[in-house]
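One such shown below:

_____
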Amino acid sequence: MTAVPLLSDSASKRTRPSASSTSSSSSVHSTRAQRRSGPPSTESAAAALVCGKHYQEICPPDADNVSRSAATEQQPLSCVNTGGSSFSKRAGVICLLLLTSIIGLLAATSYFNNQPDAPGCAMTYSRPQFVEQTEFSRSWTRYSIKYKLYLYREGGYDAFDEPSRIPVLFVPGNAGSHKQVRSIASSAAAAFVEMIGKDPSAVDHGQIGYDFFTVGLNEEFTALHGYSILEQADFINDAIRYILSLYPKTRTKHKLSHSNAAFALPASVIVVGHSMGGVVARTAFTLPNYVEDSIRAIFTMSTPHNNPTASLEQYVESAYSRVNEFWRHGFNNGTLKDVSLVSISGGNLDSMINSDYTYVGDLAPPSNSLSVMSSGINDVWLSLDHQSILWCAQMAKKFARMMIQVMDARQPSQLLPLDKRMSIMRRELYSGIEPGALPTRKETPSDKNIISSNYQYTHIHDGDTIRLSPADMRILPLGRTKATTKTKSLHLLPINGSASTDKNELIFQLLYDPRLFASFDDAQELSNLQILILGCNRESDTSAKGGSLDIHMDSSNTEDKRDESFVCERISAPTTAKLPLKRARHNPNVPVQSLRYSEIPLQEFKQYSHIGLELPSRPGKSGFLEAAFVKTPTQLDKTPGYFQLMMPYAIRIWAGNEAFGMRSRIRIDIPENPLFVLRAKLTMRRNEAAARALSTASRFAPIVFQSDGRLFESKFWYDQNTFDLAIHGRGSYLPSDGNTDFFGKDGHLVGMWDGLYIDVFADTEYYAGFDIVLQVNWYSSLNRMVKRYDMALLALSFVWACLVLAHQLRTWNGELKLVLEYSRLADTNAPKPKFPDCLATVEQLIRNGTLALMLAAAALTPVIQDLVAHTMKNSWSPATLASWKNLFMGVRGVGWTLCIAPMLLVVASLGFVALEAIVLTLVCNLTSRVFARIFKLSGKAKAIAETAEADTIASVKNDGSQGAKDIAANFPMRPLIATVAFVVFVCTFVPYQFAFLVIYMAQLITTVRTMVCTHIVSQKPTKSGKRSAAVAILQDRSSYQLALLLFWTSSLPYCAAELLVWVRNISVFWFEDAPSDHNLANMAGFFALRILATYHIVPRLGRSSELRSSPQSWAIKGLRVATYGILVLSIVYAWLFSIRRPYTLYNIGNIISAWLAIVQFADYIPDLIDTAYRSYFSPQGSRALSPATTPRSSPLIDQDTQASRNTHNTSRSGDKLDRKLR
């Protein structure tokens, strides 16, 4: 055999210990091994070259290896291994996956099965007809190819297919359909017909009904694709222009009023937007084709106004930033002064968006906007999911009734003036119990003269309380009334005899059950019932005033047998709130039984001697009424910290406490933190004496009402003793333009969090107090992390992917010890791989303290943010302060509670990366084993093994990559042509996101192919009985390729949105994309690294100990520092900024890939220059190198590595000669 002479002197010197290094354990060990083994064979020589000196430097043996037994000394130098049980080798990863699985399963089950609210919607039914506006073609808009405009017609109500009433445009949301308008439009048509049936003259006052238009937007994913937002908004403006152009003809063609009332031509359109449709409607204002004042009212349902739900694409973030800035300043500069914005959200059941983002108090002043959740809207009282907010019967009917009341066709805007319509919308949408919402509302003077002059009977009550029951209503008229057709009675309560307390401290409370005055089944009569409140004086004390009522009472109507005459007038009508009682669970269509509650300061009655209640005389089957003068209940303020709420926190109110009453209010002064859900348990304390005296139970079950000072979130609990209190409010990221504060009429800042309010309505005759116990509900709190921090999971996963790659490169460069498993060392004498696999790296990140360091960073970052913000709040501008708070996950809350979500997400994200690594490893391994088996059965395995071994070992550099001269000399033309075609397609037709997907799949195929070669070569028998050195090289290459695959996986989600929109556009033959979609630079880094990583690993940049003696140390050190610097900066940026803007992570991944490609290609530059020079002067020299040929040294390879390369090239020629001799 001629293999032995192939070991040149330089190679022998590399394996022989020098005199200067005899003290090192590695040299002694290597010398002893050489003496025992004798002259090495060809494969063992190749193994020594591949895993020789550098392998010993990366994995130095322990100091006590020199003194080990002879049997131990016979073992070759090995890296740090994880010998032992399978669990001990992967204990960290296993525990991490278990912990991540527990967190994920708990969060998922809590998210889907443990929402604080239960659904209870009734279904709506309609007879829809959609009339496509075919004339709205390319002459009106360039988007007519993929978008359509329809006119909705309700069967049985709408007789004409032409619009003639008030135009309304419905804009569907993300992947929404134009057909989603049918429930709202059908309910509006039914409400209009019902109104006209009761009051035909309403038409003359401008209430002529609505024409609902709706747009088909190709069901595009506007939540994920910002360019679609701009396109749809542009189309909306064109549609509005077209809609307004129809009415000059149709208004004169169709007669709307029999009295020939004059109606103005529409100059604006009401817009109703669902989900992202609301954002599209607001975006329309910012575009050049917007017609001024063409939109005066926007109603949005479940629309994330403040921040995008998923910032997976740059245009989404830029569209939000530009639109929100325009709206915040538009009310100050007068652009939006007459525009009203109403935001209705579904609350806890909306799993598609974070309801925090539906709050518009940061975008518009309270004079032009309101935000409300469906759980607090009268007659709805339900949390609604993202889709049911459109079809829920309770919500659709309430929304239709509100829409009917704000129309006025006599105005060009087709709406009532701004102040009037905002007043109506607040009355219809707010419950009326929120802090600051109960004082009386002012009525116009014409509303005072509505009382009749006589009653069936009048009764003066003693004391300061009126209590009525059905029995009282039947007894009071006995013997006191004559035959009459009058149906009303008057009940008077003296003010002067109420109490000696200062009247400034007294309020008048009225609570009643409408069933006291009507039949139990007469739901319509119950809903229309009104109790008028009068201010009365004796005629002897004051003369009658204009618009007053004279009430003459004969001796039969009073107990003191004196003739008395009262003069009364109606006071400003109070805000009457509805308090829901037990729902008819068997039929959601049955209206919820409710009480009525009013509260009036006694100052409103200061000029009167009595308060009068005008009541229906006919008693019902059940119900009650209670009216009383009481001292203003004291608001009970509690300030528990979240640490106290970890354990049960009890609040007690009893009859002797001034806070207890018909309505008892508690303010829980806790920070605004939407992460926590508080479990509340209510225990009522009975008044034992009163309970024994009463023959029945309490008149009504306690009712609990949750609200906040922003009039945003409110909710009732009725017939429940245990309930969950959840907080919504501002989103995690506050506006950063410094113009977010709006002030109310009283000069106070609107929209600021001032705690959680709990109102308890109880029967004070039956109960003497109550206890409320609060405690954090951890299980329910988990589901609130899902929609609030889903983007954080992606961003932190990218951080971990960068850390994994950085750790692998440091190990490859010899700065860290390589940890191998025995599973990778089937032959302990075989060459060892040097590039760590992904799972082993994750295990090392857990064991070396990186996970603990990241947990500490996650805990300290929000705390430092909050501390600095609190310290600098008087020094920094609002914009600077908001930008500081918006770093990382956004500061929401105070204290240690800021740490919980970040720490959980750090653990979950690492577990997510580990799961990705497992899936990728399994997919590649199983697929490669299947193909390796197929090749073995087909007889191709031997040829593949010889080719792979020859191409790997004979032309390999020490770092496991293909030689530059062979690449330059044998570069195939087919990949070059494919590359050029690929670039052309990206620049012209396909978006770069599609190109990245192709690159990712190609990398996956390359990894599988390398693993196939590894499996086949590892099974190839050798003469020495040892594993070929090519296996270690192939394992390194496959580990590197798999590491890139794992790193690129974190960039996949940011391509999905554009690909979905692109495919949908292609289906309707729309080929116009965003300009940046064909930017070749957005995929150049991935593409270049994919080409270079096929047969080459990034060069090893050496350790600091080698750099001191290397003449090229400046280049190696510079590249090493730059590589680590780019990775560190990427990690810091992703940590601080990318959670809010995760789309930037794709660009960061592209930059890192481009830099690795530059480093990898820079290693080839000297050899490529040398190859080109030799090819020019000696064409034969580029094809084959003689044993005497010495390659040019690369400045990126240290001297030892260069010597190894020279030896391998020599070995290649010897292998060729050896094959010829055989």
